[in-house]
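Long-time lurker. I teach an intro course on protein structure, and each term I like to show students one example going from raw sequence to a predicted 3D structure in token notation. This year I'd like something fresh instead of my usual example. Would anyone be willing to generate the tokens for the chain below so I can use it in lecture? Attribution to the forum is fine with me.
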Amino acid sequence: MLRKIFFCLCAAALLYGLFRQTPPPQLFNQSDKFGHLGGFAAMTVVGLWAVSRRFTPVFIVSVLILACSAEFIQQTLLAHRHFSLYDMYANLTGIAIILIPWLVWRISQYFFSDSSHLQP
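-- Reply from a regular --
Happy to contribute to a lecture. Here you go:
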């Protein structure tokens, strides 16, 4: 239950940050990129922790679709927001920072934890 609460809170925070009417204030040059990267990294790690294995592929595809489409949605629906290819790259980088090591770990678990599945 705690995992689902964290997942919902993280999703709500990410969606609020992405789709608020005005962009967040710039703390330093390109500081919003760190927000995009951190938000999607947090969403990915919490999602991998909270979502059951059966739905993990659906979660991964969904978060990748959101990462790619969020900038288009912002530009279309929000008057003071605009499309930024670099924001989309930051979204995808946040996902990759978590997803790539997780995939390596899952694959290594499959091959090295129990070799009985490799026997004919």
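Some talking points for your students: Residues 7 and 47 are 6 Å apart (CA to CA). The chain is about 75% helix and 0% strand.
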